[in-house]
Write a structure and sequence with these properties.
- With about 475 residues, the chain is an alpha/beta fold.
- The chain is built from 17 helices and 18 strands.
- Strand 6, helix 4 and strand 7 form a beta-alpha-beta unit.
């Protein structure tokens, strides 16, 4: 008997549509559909745009149509923004018009108990070639095809992360965070209530997408737990998957039901199942973005381990870092004798400590000395990762003291250690003195480090906790491969 092979759903036309219709397009500049059209026009989207409005001949200079069937051209992607009570009639028109993918932006469905309306939509598309994303979602953001949500989030540099989110609001915040935290998107999919297209179908597609290196998810609940876990296990074995699951408390679960109509289920059971799949589960949006920063910026995770060298320019911070590191089960090994001797040869005898944690004292403010220290530590056989603190607030007066234009550039260059088995360096940049001048300096320094594949974090605990989660992920997959 021939073996039946099920191929994943092809969502190419969803993330790279050649034609984009907006049903319920408005001439009101404050409306979501108007801002959506502005975004498409500003972003550089090369496909055809079809505003659908029976009372308009054109919107923003683009020819408008009375309904979707009047377009009489193939439609890859349609965005539906009409009241829920009119949704079924519009879905029927989309099916007759042969729309490939329909995004239902409208709310007022299962999330408020209106399950019958979602079931009617399912019956309407049954047997057709039309697939539905949503309802209660904002659809697709693609840096490749330049389709965006609204005019305030124009797609920027294409990156390795695909984000699948049950919440449109979380998706929008995620994009803004990525702009500044060093991770860029390949695509973002807001999928809402999952009336038709499920998160596991999307995972399966992006597993085979060569431009997606990392998959991140925000979930409130899943419709088919068994299918979800089976797919997640398959995907997480080949690509890093990071999951933020909400609805962990009773009140949180009630909020989930009112938001997307999902039943979040037992958090303990969900967490246990995710652990078995090899995905990384985080507890907060902040942790989600921290893990993605490390995964994206580092690119190559080889060499990451729990054996950490701590480098600082003050004893107090060194002690705090050591306490936090050990509380998260990281190791602070002794440097080799050769490493200690070499450190003593470049550091002054006064105000420095050449054991791990390493206190450079005031000499650490000089990037020329810091560079020598990083080169020495790069050869230390007992440690694999360097965690260091750089206080951007000092850069202004240090630049004057050293007679250079920008000491930040020198400090960034000091951590660019090329050659054999380069150790991973994780940088902590505290936001101690939050002035406008320091904020600009902070962002510029962070960008420089990210370009050199050095992940940055604003607090010690965030850097160290992220390292522990990523190393745990690496060790889990290495152990599975050995079995």
């Amino acid at each position: 008997m021939a073996r039946i092979i099920f191929l994943p759903m092809d969502f190419s036309a969803l993330i790279n549509p050649k034609s984009y219709a907006i049903i319920g397009a408005s001439r009101n500049p404050r409306s979501a559909t108007n801002r959506l059209i502005v975004g498409l026009l500003k972003s550089g989207y090369q496909g055809k745009i079809f505003p659908i409005n029976p009372r308009a001949d054109e919107i923003l200079g683009v020819k408008a149509y009375s309904d979707i069937e009047a377009v009489q051209m193939p439609i890859d992607y349609a965005f539906l923004a009409v009241p829920a009570r009119f949704a079924v009639d519009e879905v029927k028109k989309c099916v007759r018009a042969g729309v490939k993918f329909l995004v239902i932006f409208s709310s007022g469905f299962g999330e408020i108990g209106n399950v019958n309306l979602e079931e009617e939509i399912q019956r309407t598309i049954r047997g057709s070639k039309t697939r539905i994303l949503g309802p209660n979602c904002i659809g697709v953001y693609s840096t490749e095809s330049k389709i965006c949500y609204f005019s305030d989030q124009i797609p920027e540099k294409e990156g390795p992360v695909t984000f699948l989110s049950q919440s449109g609001g979380i998706m929008r915040t995620f994009i803004w965070t990525g702009f500044t935290r060093g991770f860029n998107l390949r695509a973002g999919i807001s999928f809402g209530n999952q009336t038709d297209i499920s998160v596991q179908e999307l995972m399966e597609f992006f597993l085979h997408d060569s431009k997606t290196r990392i998959i991140a998810m925000y979930l409130e609940g899943v419709k088919n737990g068994k299918a979800f876990v089976t797919t997640l296990k398959k995907v997480a074995a080949q690509k890093p998957v990071v999951i933020l699951k909400t609805g962990r408390t009773k009140r949180g679960e009630q909020a989930v039901i009112s938001h997307t109509g999902s039943i979040s289920g037992s958090n303990e059971v969900f967490h246990g199942l995710v652990q078995q799949t090899g995905a990384i589960q985080v507890e907060t949006f902040e942790e989600l973005c921290d893990v993605l920063t490390m995964l994206s910026v580092l690119e190559d995770l080889q060499g990451l381990s729990r054996n950490v060298a701590i480098v600082n320019t003050g004893g107090g911070f060194s002690v705090e870092l050591t306490d936090i590191a050990e509380s998260f089960d990281l190791n602070i090994p002794e440097f080799s004798q050769d490493t200690r001797e070499r450190l003593k040869s470049v550091l002054p005898d006064v105000n420095t400590i050449t054991i791990n944690p390493l206190d450079l004292g005031a000499s650490g403010f000089d990037p020329r000395i810091s560079r020598q220290v990083f080169e020495i530590l790069n050869d230390d056989p007992n440690t694999d990762v360097i965690i260091t603190v750089r206080e951007v607030e000092r850069f202004g007066y240090l630049s004057k003291e050293l007679g250079v234009e920008d000491v930040g550039k020198m400090h960034a260059a000091a951590m660019r250690i090329d050659g054999k088995n380069r150790k991973k360096i994780i940088v902590i940049i505290p936001k101690s003195w939050e002035t406008s001048e320091n904020f600009q300096r902070y962002q510029a320094f962070q960008d420089m480090l990210h370009q050199q594949h050095l992940p940055c974090f604003p607090t010690p605990i965030r850097a160290i906790k992220t390292l522990k989660m990523v190393v745990g992920h690496i060790n889990l997959h290495e152990n599975r491969q050995k079995k």
